[in-house]
Write a structure and sequence with these properties.
By secondary structure, the chain is mainly α. Helix content is 68%, strand content 5%. It folds into two domains: 93 residues, no CATH class; 36 residues, no CATH class. Helix 1 packs antiparallel against helix 2 and helix 2 runs antiparallel to helix 3. Keywords: Membrane, Transmembrane, Transmembrane helix.
Length: 161
């Protein structure tokens, strides 16, 4: 009796989770996002949705069979759900643009190569006319500025006089 219940519960929870994620990934309109900040926020929300849906689905999948067989431990089901949600957020997040962006900004800001609030900085640069927006990305308006910023900085620790 336990194996069919476990199989049915896992199958139903997986089907529900996949359906919700598929529904969330379907665009409402054919319009392309015109704002990089909005695009980032939408992508990050999708990562969080996938994590929560996956965590809830596996929490249910582990909790329901335990409840039906009398060995119900709601704390264990919640713990499994939370651990799965964190694992999905990390795993999926690193494969989505928003996750890669957050990792890159974290590393580069620790090295003092970019501002911590990079999107705000880029938005200000766009407003001031240094950058332009093309769809959901920022581009330099002037190739000379891009070339100047791309050059490596001289090693300031060397003392060449």
């Amino acid at each position: 009796m336990t194996a069919p219940v476990v199989g049915l519960t896992f199958g139903l929870a997986g089907w529900l989770a996949a359906g919700l994620v598929d529904w969330a990934e379907t665009p409402v309109t054919d319009d392309r996002p015109r704002d990089p900040v909005l695009t980032f926020r939408r992508d990050l929300r999708l990562v969080l949705l996938k994590a929560v849906v996956g965590g809830v689905a596996l929490g249910i999948a582990f909790g329901v069979p335990d409840a039906l067989t009398g060995g119900a431990d709601p704390v264990a089901a919640v713990a499994v759900g939370v651990l799965v949600a964190v694992a999905i957020a990390l795993g999926v997040g690193l494969h989505q643009a928003s996750g890669r962006y957050l990792v890159a900004v974290a590393v580069l800001s620790v090295r003092r190569r970019v501002p911590v609030r990079l999107l705000g900085f880029l938005d200000d640069a766009h407003r001031l006319g240094v950058l332009r927006r093309s769809g959901a990305v920022y581009q330099f308006r002037h190739a000379a500025l891009q070339d100047h910023l791309a050059r490596t900085r001289p090693d300031r620790s060397r003392k060449d006089h």
